[in-house]
C-alpha cells in the first residue's frame, strides 16, 4: 500500500500553489509544511503527495516514464482537475476523455493527463460506466 508519493522540486514555494489548488479540489490540504518539504493529504485518508527539494542538494529532475495518478470521484472531477492544473501553470498532456475499450462490466477508464510547473507528469482518473 502506498502511503504517499514524493516529487522533487527546484522551487518549492512557486510549485506549492499548483498542488494547493489540486488538493483543494480533492478535499484535502497541507498536512506537513516545512522549509524544504510540503505534503498534501489527510492523516486518516488515502495516499498523499509531497514536494521536496532533493536532500542531496542537486537539481530535481523529472523521471522519464514516471507518473502520479490521482483518483477522482467522477469524470466531472477529472475535467475540473485538468482545468485547475492548466490554470495553475501546468501543461496539457492529454485532454479528459475515455481511454481504451470498456471492460466486461461496461466500465471505461476515464483520464486526463497534465504536468506540473516543473514537468512532473500526473493524471486524474476514474472508472465510468457506459461513457
Automatic annotation (TrEMBL):
PROSITE patterns: VOC (PS51819). Residues 86-106 are annotated as: Disordered. Gene3D superfamilies: 2,3-Dihydroxybiphenyl 1,2-Dioxygenase, domain 1. Residues 1-127 form the VOC domain. It comes from the Bacteria. InterPro entries: Glyas_Bleomycin-R_OHBP_Dase (IPR029068), Glyas_Fos-R_dOase_dom (IPR004360), VOC_core (IPR037523). Coiled coil: none annotated. This is VOC family protein. It comes from Pelagerythrobacter aerophilus. The lineage of its organism: Bacteria, Pseudomonadati, Pseudomonadota, Alphaproteobacteria, Sphingomonadales.
